[in-house]
């Protein structure tokens, strides 16, 4: 068997859950889609109502809501109440990770009112927003002004708070870094009810650097100031097909945006947007985009493709046509390009509704898409949820750019999931070591894509049913994820914690650096008030006893360090 050949697996006997999943589309069409559409419409009306309010009114409401949060926190009795959690229901989260920590006794703080764009400052090029503002809402407000967040995550429902406390990326991240790298300031309510504004150069700079990836375990985020950039009306997108082995595809992907001469910061050589899709072990399409004016897009001979219309082919399938017709260029309205994967949830929509990509469905019912991920989660019990954990993969592997080929080969060998999404991002060398960080000494190697200030990484997005599952063979999803996590640790990679994780606490802190995070948790009183990031990310149910014992261990360690004699 060659290195790339997948192992032979025996056939798996079907159980009742298989049939329920196979016909789940009935529930989705008649229940989930209509309710989703209604929620989307009502949310849109709420957003419009918010936009009609003056800046002063929105700020006044924000200040009042912050006072309510502070008051609520101060009502907590640490000796009687559980650890602090938001009041958001577990199934509302977009991520696939089970929010099982809320099954233990906890003290709820309601943040549901924090969903307004507070101010668009054109002079400072800053958007000040509340944490529940989502990507669809912010792009709808900024793009007509020819402005945009530097990094706009593709799915409409992704919120600012989730992208900051967790993980966020987009095709512009090879220029600007991850979503959290574009945040200028965080407004956070600490465990004792103190409201602070953290920036990279004020007295709370340690908190500023510790918040990304902390999963909301350091304080309650109530607002953020995020960098804006000027944009144009269209995205000029070039689709380039690539054929070869996985290493060839990886190299073509690198070459699409990373000059081999190392001139990575040259605007003339580096596109505004980059995205790669690997459709099979031998075929892929690499896409590069540059902002273009309305005048350029409408010149004679140029093709404009409004991919946002409900009846249009799903974007990943449209891109795949380059494999047959060769390289081509088209112009896509900027906001429609940003949210190109929303309608089909990348390619997960094909699993949820197997016929939803067909012409008749798109024309008749495409306007109902997509189903809300939160409703999909709400309509599945533990048996269905566990089935998806075992028979389905939704994982992102953040790996150094020069190891993308190895990552693709690993995924093919162990999971056989296609398509695979490729999206590059800068991993900045910061003045302080955070939970994720570039390889030590990367700047000395001068590898393709790297600069003196940042190492180029790539998100290898693995979302779909593995090949063995589609063939009816035995597949151990939990074991595959454990192997993936081990591979990432060995290759200085990282796993975003929105996904299902099998990491033990020891392995978790081998993947991530605990130094700054634990220091900030103790300094700002988060220990004993908020759950630790590992325990919040841990797979499985959390009983009240487990939660208390875990936090007590953190408290005892903190006290032990404080009590140590100084030499």
UniProtKB/TrEMBL annotation:
<dbReference type="InterPro" id="IPR006094">
    <property type="entry name" value="Oxid_FAD_bind_N"/>
</dbReference>
<dbReference type="GO" id="GO:0008202">
    <property type="term" value="P:steroid metabolic process"/>
</dbReference>
<keyword id="KW-1133">Transmembrane helix</keyword>
<dbReference type="GO" id="GO:0050614">
    <property type="term" value="F:Delta24-sterol reductase activity"/>
</dbReference>
<dbReference type="GO" id="GO:0016020">
    <property type="term" value="C:membrane"/>
</dbReference>
<keyword id="KW-0560">Oxidoreductase</keyword>
<dbReference type="InterPro" id="IPR016166">
    <property type="entry name" value="FAD-bd_PCMH"/>
</dbReference>
<keyword id="KW-0472">Membrane</keyword>
<feature type="domain" description="FAD-binding PCMH-type">
    <location>
        <begin position="45"/>
        <end position="231"/>
    </location>
</feature>
<protein>
    <recommendedName>
        <fullName>Delta(24)-sterol reductase</fullName>
        <ecNumber>1.3.1.72</ecNumber>
    </recommendedName>
</protein>
<dbReference type="GO" id="GO:0071949">
    <property type="term" value="F:FAD binding"/>
</dbReference>
<dbReference type="InterPro" id="IPR016169">
    <property type="entry name" value="FAD-bd_PCMH_sub2"/>
</dbReference>
<feature type="transmembrane region" description="Helical">
    <location>
        <begin position="21"/>
        <end position="45"/>
    </location>
</feature>
<keyword id="KW-0812">Transmembrane</keyword>
<dbReference type="InterPro" id="IPR036318">
    <property type="entry name" value="FAD-bd_PCMH-like_sf"/>
</dbReference>
<dbReference type="Pfam" id="PF01565">
    <property type="entry name" value="FAD_binding_4"/>
</dbReference>
<dbReference type="GO" id="GO:0005737">
    <property type="term" value="C:cytoplasm"/>
</dbReference>
<dbReference type="InterPro" id="IPR040165">
    <property type="entry name" value="Diminuto-like"/>
</dbReference>
């Amino acid at each position: 068997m060659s290195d790339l050949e997948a192992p032979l697996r025996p056939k798996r006997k079907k159980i009742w859950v298989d049939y329920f999943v196979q016909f789940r589309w009935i529930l989705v069409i008649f229940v989930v889609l209509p309710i989703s559409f209604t929620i989307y419409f009502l949310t849109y009306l709420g957003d419009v109502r918010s936009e009609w309010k003056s800046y002063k009114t929105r700020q006044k409401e924000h200040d009042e809501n912050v006072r309510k949060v502070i008051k609520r926190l101060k009502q907590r009795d640490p000796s009687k109440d559980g650890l602090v959690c938001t009041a958001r229901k577990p199934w509302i989260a977009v991520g696939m990770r089970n929010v099982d920590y809320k099954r233990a006794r906890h003290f709820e703080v309601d943040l549901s009112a924090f969903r307004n764009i507070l101010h668009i400052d054109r002079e400072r090029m800053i958007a000040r927003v509340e944490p529940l503002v989502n990507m669809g809402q912010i792009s709808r407000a900024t793009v007509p002004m020819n402005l945009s967040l530097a990094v706009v995550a593709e799915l409409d429902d992704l919120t600012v708070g989730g992208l900051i406390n967790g993980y966020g990326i987009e095709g512009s991240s090879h220029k600007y870094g991850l979503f959290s790298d574009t945040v200028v300031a965080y407004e956070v309510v600490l465990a004792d009810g103190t409201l602070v504004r953290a920036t990279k150069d004020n007295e709370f700079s340690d908190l500023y650097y510790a918040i990304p990836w902390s999963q909301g375990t350091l304080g309650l985020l109530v607002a953020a100031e995020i960098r804006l950039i000027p944009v144009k009306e269209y995205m000029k997108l070039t689709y380039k097909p690539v054929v070869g082995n996985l290493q060839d595809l990886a190299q073509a992907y690198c070459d699409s945006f990373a000059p081999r001469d190392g001139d990575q910061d040259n605007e003339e050589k580096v596109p505004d947007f980059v995205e790669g899709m690997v459709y099979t072990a031998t075929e892929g399409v690499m896409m590069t985009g540059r902002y273009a004016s309305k005048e350029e897009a409408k010149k004679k001979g140029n093709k404009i493709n409004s991919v946002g219309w409900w009846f249009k082919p799903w974007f990943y399938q449209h891109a795949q046509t380059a494999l047959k017709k060769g390289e081509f260029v088209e112009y896509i309205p900027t906001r429609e390009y940003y949210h190109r994967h929303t309608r089909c949830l990348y390619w997960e929509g094909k699993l949820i509704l197997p016929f939803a990509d067909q012409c008749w469905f798109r024309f008749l019912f495409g306007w109902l898409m997509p189903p809300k991920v939160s409703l999909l989660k709400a309509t599945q019990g533990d048996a269905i949820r566990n089935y998806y954990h075992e028979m389905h993969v939704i994982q992102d592997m953040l790996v150094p750019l020069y190891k993308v080929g190895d990552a693709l080969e690993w995924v093919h060998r162990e999971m056989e999931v296609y398509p695979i999404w490729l999206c590059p991002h800068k991993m900045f060398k910061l003045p302080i070591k955070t939970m994720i960080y570039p390889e030590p000494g990367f700047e000395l190697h001068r590898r393709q894509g790297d600069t003196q200030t940042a190492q180029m990484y790539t998100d290898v997005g693995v979302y779909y049913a593995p090949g063995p599952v589609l063939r009816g063979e035995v597949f151990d999803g939990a074991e595959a994820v454990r192997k993936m996590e081990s591979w990432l640790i060995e290759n200085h990679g990282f796993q975003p914690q929105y996904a299902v994780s099998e990491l033990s606490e020891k392995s978790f802190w081998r993947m991530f650096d605990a130094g700054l995070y634990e220091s900030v948790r103790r300094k700002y009183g988060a220990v004993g008030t908020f759950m630790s990031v590992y325990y919040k990310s841990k797979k499985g149910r959390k009983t009240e006893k487990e939660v208390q014992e875990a936090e007590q261990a953190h408290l005892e360690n903190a006290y032990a360090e404080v009590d140590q004699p100084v030499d």
